[in-house]
Each structure stands twice: as C-alpha cells, then as structure tokens.
Design a protein that fits this description.
Blueprint: H1 2-25, E1 35-41, H2 53-63, E2 68-74, H3 84-90, E3 95-99, H4 112-115, H5 120-126, H6 128-137, E4 141-146, E5 152-156, E6 170-172, H7 180-184, E7 187-189, H8 196-201, E8 207-211, E9 227-229, E10 238-243, H9 244-249, H10 252-286, E11 290-292, H11 297-318, H12 320-330
Parallel strand pairs: 1-2, 1-3, 6-7, 6-8, 9-11
Antiparallel strand pairs: 3-10, 4-10, 5-8, 5-9
Helix pairs in contact: 2-10, 11-12
Length: 332
C-alpha cells in the first residue's frame, strides 16, 4: 500500500515536471491545435488582381507559426459569387475575398470603404478600421482588412469629350455602380466575367467599369475598349472577411498576429499594385490604348463630385446617424 502511494506521488511529480517543461519550451504558452480556414473569392486564384493575396495567405501562416492556415479553394466555380457572402455568414466557408458591392445591402455603412480618401494604414490609425470591424460584426462577419488598391475607371469603345457623352451609353457594370450610373445617364448592364469579351465584340455594351489597370489587356477586352476615361474615382472596395464564429475560435494571440500581419500586408499591397499599374499603363499605351479626359475642367470636377455625392446621399438616407462619423474618418 505504501509502495502504491509512493509510486502515485512520484508519477504525479513527473507529470508536473513534464508540463512545466512543455510550457517553458513554448514560451509559457500551451501548444495549440492547427486550424484551417477554407476560403473563396470572387476572382480566380490565378487572376492578376488576386496576385498579392497569395502573400497574405503565406503571411498568416508565418505569423501564427503554422497554427492558422488558409485553404484557398477557388472562386465562383466553387460557390457562385452572388451566394458567397451567405456562405460565409452561415459558416459554409470561413474566409471570403470579396468587395462591398456584394453585401452593402446588409450594412450600407461599409460603403465608407470605397469612399475613403485615405490609405489603409491611416484608416487603422484614425479609428476607421475599428469602426468597420464593429459594423461588420453586426452582420455576422469579421473585417480583417483590404486586399486591393486602385480606383475604378471607364473603359470605352469610342472616345468622348464631355459629361453629356456618357448619357445613353451601355456599360458593363456591377452592383457597386447601381446608383452612380443612372445619375450619369449610363445604362448599367450586368455581364458575367466570362462573357465580357463577347459582349464587347458584339457591341452589346459600349464599355466597362474596372478598377486598376491589370486585367483588361490580358483578357483581350482592350481589343474593343481602346479608350480609358482617365478620371479615376473612389478607392477599391475589396475586403478580406471571416466568419465571426470561426474567427472567434482562433486564439487571441493568433488573432492579434493575423491583424498585425494584415496591417503590414496592406502596405505591401498598395505598393505592389501601384507599381504593377504603372507598368501595365505603359503596356496598354504600347497596345494602342488611349487615356482620355473631358475637354473641360468643369466636366471633370462635376464627374468626380457626382461620384461621391450620389453615394453620400444614399448613406444619408440609409444610415443618417453614421454619416457624420464616416465622413470625419474618411474625407481629407
């Protein structure tokens, strides 16, 4: 009996020593199981616009020492684009590379993201980022950060001189432009990405709206759109989102590590796409694409003013109590 008690005491002391040794080896923190987050996006994995996202995936893995891994499964071929946000909210997927146009009806205030006139790191410094995190939580998702930069422009099949020339034009569009285009007299036409080339060739549309420079030339779209209206407006509205329950299942330390890695990634991302856009602009000009502007500064100013006024007017109707804060955080 005494031997049994003695053995129990010895074993207990050995287990305690092993536990203490394990904690010391891991810096005083218990080891954690790995977690895999399944992700999809609205653009293919090999699309030039998603190039920087591969770095973010690697950065998350590195920052969490492999405990959090992103399994990027694909795009609309995995889950139709229009259903992706619902899939994220319900937990069918864990991470979504999307843009605010697909879920702005749930939380109109997320339109503050494309309307922001400051850089992503400035948004993190002045409180706008935290405010967006808070507002996204109300719709069951966590806002991790941005993944694309560059402003939208109109790519046209014929040159124009004035604001009035846009009236009646048929432009391949997206939900984000549902208010601006009618205000400009533009007929918004929804066309699947795979059908854009044909829609341009058959003159079903007179052009398209597109953010940044990368993509139209390599897809052959500039065979028909030889003119780019060089009056960029808004900023990119592409976001990295996570299912809120899955995000909260990640340890606090790893959530912090992902947030810090994303903040660093955003700086890299802005520089990356800025440089790539400059290179692509040179290639576009070599290919015969012309960057045009309105002949009058008055029209140029009116165009830009309209782009912002229409959205702020919408927000003033939808979330009037938030407009003042949004403007104070995003308008220079």
């Amino acid at each position: 009996m005494k031997k049994s008690i003695g053995m129990i005491i010895i074993l207990s002391m050995l287990l305690l020593l092993m536990a203490c040794s394990s904690e010391t080896a891991t810096g005083g923190q218990p080891s954690e199981e790995k977690i895999t987050l399944n992700a999809v996006g609205f653009l293919p994995i090999d699309d030039p616009l998603t190039a920087s996202l591969h770095k973010w995936v690697e950065d998350v893995h590195t920052a969490t020492e492999g405990r959090v891994q992103i399994n990027w499964k694909g795009a609309g071929d995995v889950i139709p684009i229009a259903q992706q946000f619902d899939a994220l909210e319900s937990g069918v997927i864990d991470v979504l590379f999307t843009y605010t146009g697909w879920y702005q009806s749930r939380a109109p205030e997320v339109l503050g993201i494309p309307l922001s006139q400051i850089q992503p790191w400035e948004e993190r410094e002045n409180g706008f980022y935290d405010f967006m995190v808070e507002r996204h939580q109300n719709i069951g998702v966590h806002y991790i950060g941005r993944w694309l930069t560059g402003s939208p422009r109109l790519w046209l099949s014929k040159p124009i001189d004035s604001l009035d020339d846009l009236n009646g034009m048929k432009i391949r569009s997206a939900p984000a432009y549902d208010r601006l285009f009618p205000a400009l007299g533009i007929n918004s036409v929804q066309v699947n990405p795979a059908d854009v080339y044909t829609s341009l060739q058959t003159k079903m549309v007179d052009g398209l709206v597109y953010g940044g420079m990368l993509g139209p030339r390599t897809r052959g779209w500039t065979d028909s759109t030889k003119y780019v209206l060089d009056h960029p407006f808004w900023s990119q509205n592409c976001t990295i989102l996570a299912n809120l329950d899955k995000w909260n299942a990640i340890s606090e330390a790893d959530r912090k590590a992902i947030a810090e890695a994303t903040a660093e990634y955003e700086r890299y991302m802005v520089q990356y796409y800025t440089e790539e856009d400059q290179k692509e602009r040179t290639e576009l000009e070599k290919a015969g694409v012309q960057f045009i502007q309105f002949t009058s500064q008055e029209d140029a100013d009116a165009f830009l003013k309209k782009a912002y006024d229409v959205e702020w007017e919408f927000l003033n109707k939808e979330v009037p109590d938030l407009v003042g804060k949004l403007q104070s955080l995003t308008v220079k």
